[in-house]
């Protein structure tokens, strides 16, 4: 049984209607996403800004309601778990902006120990604090940080505190929503390695949301590529990086800058032609058709389904043959 | 078990300080505001403890000294009124009423407004729309008519005055806090709190309200003079605190009717009221300067 499973998950927001008296409209963000995650594994979710990665992450925890499909936690439909609130210790989340994720009025000790007041109410204040200090030490912060306030921290330290808060309730899974994209590159590596260490020692499953392909490659076991709210490719890590199949995945891969300046100079332009379609008015056919170098007539009219083209490799493209 | 690539960080060496503490530190550097704090404290202490040092109360008439003039070395340092009541004691006792209504009114009105606004802003959506329309309807209610209605309902006097003041003054803090709560609700630490299993009510009380504190302190400090002023205004009109109980408002009213013959009946309560209002406004100003996140 997988730890986390999503079946045809759809998520949308309600936005005010046009005009003063217009009925509220539903703005769909994520469409028909299915995935499953095994304990101790990492699923990398990549895609450009605005493709619904973060929305998906929050919907997987049911922090925002899904509009279609279901999410199963250890085989149980999350919408039907009684008192889901109390079981949230098992599934945690860390955020992109590490400072904004910490309440500026609380000391770090309080921030980290606060979830315990909900999850383990029988714990005394002193015991909760001891657990918080332990969690802080697990993420590489000394005990005297417990009395500090968030504004005294650097971005990397703040993200460590965010991780400490996530692990204090001993979770089974953490959703990492762009956890390093706001950090300096040198700090990014430290945080990624910290997450991997914790994964190993606590047996954590991770959903790692990022637009940084290099980082995803480092941490993931499986990679899922999203474009405009839909999954366009899903594959094991090494196969994906060896040979991405979907034209969108290839475009993303091409957009990664070359570290060698001489080679970077000679690289052909990687900017995608065409325009990103509006979420309010999604294309009828393939979500990538307006920008795809391979697009043909049928791509604009019929939407390719996500199908298995090789063992464990799923692609949604009319032109990808079995590999 | 910190790994070798993530060495334990040592905490910064400076004293840990919450933003609130830093803000008060900044406030303390404002001389005008601090002088106002001391002066206000002095006035408050005088109002509440001053009358204890006199052998009579503000309601005891001294028939030997009716309308006595100012004589700082007599038993009635600021003289007596037409009934022979000691003016100084009357003003101090009036101050007790005015200050109590002022601070208590601001506290209650502010408290209600903060909770209401924080809840509306956090919940959002339809409930928020409904709650805010209600506020707008109440805004449209004519203040003086409301006070008259309430004094009919409660039989007049201090209680109805207090109710009317609270009823009208909680609206603005509610609107201000709601805006603040709305932007806070989008912040990631609120998401984190929800992921941490907190209920909506607890999030409002433990995350939203504490983060509105600076706005509330600044606005609340402006609310106190507003309440005192409206108490005085209503008592002046005769629909507030009733004789023989003194308040600054009705003392000033008595003073204005005797203004042409005896100015001190107006100047003493009026001067004290003005001083208190000045102090409160300077304090509010200082707090705003210290708490404004835009100039740091």
UniProtKB/TrEMBL annotation, chain A:
Residue ranges occupied by any ABC transporter domain in the UniProt entry: 15-253
Intracellular or extracellular location(s): Cell inner membrane
Protein name: ATP-binding cassette domain-containing protein
CDD domains attached to this UniProt entry: ABC_NikE_OppD_transporters
Location (main, coarse): membrane
Pfam families reported for this sequence: ABC_tran, oligo_HPY
GO molecular function: ATP binding
TrEMBL record, chain B:
Span of domain ABC transmembrane type-1: 95-284
Xref: InterPro entries: BP-dependent_transpt_permease, MetI-like, MetI-like_sf, OppC_N
Pfam families linked: BPD_transp_1, OppC_N
Major localisation: membrane
Residue ranges crossing the lipid bilayer per the database entry: 32-54, 101-125, 137-155, 161-179, 265-284
Keywords: Cell inner membrane, Cell membrane, Membrane, Peptide transport, Protein transport, Transmembrane, Transmembrane helix, Transport
Compartment annotation: Cell inner membrane; Cell membrane
Membrane topology: Multi-pass membrane protein
Family in the record: Belongs to the binding-protein-dependent transport system permease family. OppBC subfamily.
Name of the protein in its database record: Oligopeptide transport system permease protein OppC
């Amino acid at each position: 049984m997988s730890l986390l499973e999503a079946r045809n998950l759809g998520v949308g927001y309600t936005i005010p209607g046009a005009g003063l008296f217009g009925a509220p409209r539903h703005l769909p963000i994520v469409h028909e996403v299915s995935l499953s995650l095994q304990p101790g594994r990492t699923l990398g979710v990549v895609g450009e800004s605005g493709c619904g990665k973060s929305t998906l992450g929050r919907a997987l925890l049911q922090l925002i309601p899904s509009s279609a499909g279901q999410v199963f936690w250890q085989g149980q439909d999350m919408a039907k778990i009684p008192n889901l609130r109390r079981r949230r210790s098992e599934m945690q989340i860390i955020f992109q902006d590490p400072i904004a994720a910490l309440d500026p009025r609380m000391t770090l000790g309080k921030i980290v120990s606060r979830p315990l007041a909900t999850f383990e109410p029988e714990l005394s204040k002193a015991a909760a604090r001891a657990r918080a200090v332990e969690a802080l030490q697990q993420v590489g912060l000394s005990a005297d940080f417990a009395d500090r306030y968030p504004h005294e921290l650097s971005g990397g330290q703040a993200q460590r505190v965010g991780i400490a808060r996530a692990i204090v309730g001993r979770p089974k899974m953490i959703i990492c929503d762009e956890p390093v994209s706001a950090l300096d590159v040198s700090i990014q590596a430290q945080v990624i390695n910290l997450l991997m260490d914790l994964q190993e020692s606590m047996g954590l499953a991770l959903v790692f949301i990022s637009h940084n392909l290099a980082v995803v490659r480092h941490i993931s076991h499986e990679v899922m590529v999203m474009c405009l709210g839909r999954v366009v490719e899903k594959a094991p890590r090494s196969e994906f990086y060896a040979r991405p199949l979907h034209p969108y995945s290839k475009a993303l891969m091409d957009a990664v800058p070359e570290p060698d300046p001489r080679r970077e100079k000679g690289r052909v332009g990687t900017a995608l032609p065409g325009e990103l379609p509006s979420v309010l008015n999604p294309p009828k056919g393939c979500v990538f058709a307006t920008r795809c170098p391979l697009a043909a007539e049928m791509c604009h009219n019929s939407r390719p389904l996500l199908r298995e083209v090789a063992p464990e490799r799923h692609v949604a493209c009319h032109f990808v043959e079995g590999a | 078990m910190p790994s070798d690539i993530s060495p334990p960080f040592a905490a910064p060496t400076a004293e840990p300080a919450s933003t609130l503490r830093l803000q008060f530190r900044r406030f303390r550097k404002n001389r005008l505001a601090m002088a106002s704090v001391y002066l206000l404290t002095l006035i408050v202490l005088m109002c509440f403890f001053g009358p204890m040092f006199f052998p009579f109360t503000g309601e005891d008439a001294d028939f030997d000294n009716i309308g006595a003039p100012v004589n700082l070395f007599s038993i009635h340092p600021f003289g007596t009124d037409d009934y022979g009541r000691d003016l100084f004691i009357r003003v101090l006792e009036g101050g007790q009423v005015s200050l109590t209504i002022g601070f208590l009114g601001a506290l209650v009105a502010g408290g209600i407004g903060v909770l209401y606004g924080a809840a509306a802003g956090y919940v959002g959506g339809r409930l928020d729309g409904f709650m805010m329309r209600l506020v707008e309807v109440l805004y449209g209610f004519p203040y003086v008519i409301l006070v008259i209605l309430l004094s009919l309902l409660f039989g007049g006097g201090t209680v109805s005055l207090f109710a009317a003041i609270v009823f009208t003054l909680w609206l603005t803090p509610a609107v201000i806090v709601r805006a603040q709560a709305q932007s806070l609700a989008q912040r990631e630490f609120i998401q984190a709190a929800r992921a941490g299993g907190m209920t909506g009510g607890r999030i409002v009380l433990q995350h939203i309200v504490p983060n509105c504190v600076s706005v509330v302190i600044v606005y609340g400090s402006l609310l106190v003079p507003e309440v005192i002023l409206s108490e005085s205004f209503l008592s002046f009109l005769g629909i507030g605190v009733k004789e023989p109980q003194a308040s600054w408002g009705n003392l000033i009213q008595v003073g204005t009717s005797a203004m042409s013959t005896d100015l001190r009946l107006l100047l003493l309560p009026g001067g004290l009221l003005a001083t208190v209002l000045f102090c409160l406004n300077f304090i509010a100003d200082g707090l705003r300067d210290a708490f404004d996140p835009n100039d740091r």
